[in-house]
Structure prediction request, 69 residues.
Amino acid sequence: LHTTRTSQVALMVLQPGAESSEASANEHGWAEQWLYVVSGTGTARVGKRTVELREGVLVLIARREPHVI
Prediction:
């Protein structure tokens, strides 16, 4: 949706049981990402931490931090 030199805004819709990608393959060396959950529930693995996702949760993913949603 919008990209700058240091950040990225995107829209992602995942079906139940789906993943965004393999954690080792999904990292962004040039930009941080903000993940805001509009609806639904799930889990994000960001670096070494696990974050429970639900409506209203906001997660910061730092540059070069491997992640999978």
In short: Strands lie at 2-3, 7-9, 32-36, 41-46, 49-54, 58-61, 67-68. The chain is about 0% helix and 40% strand. The mean pLDDT is 86.
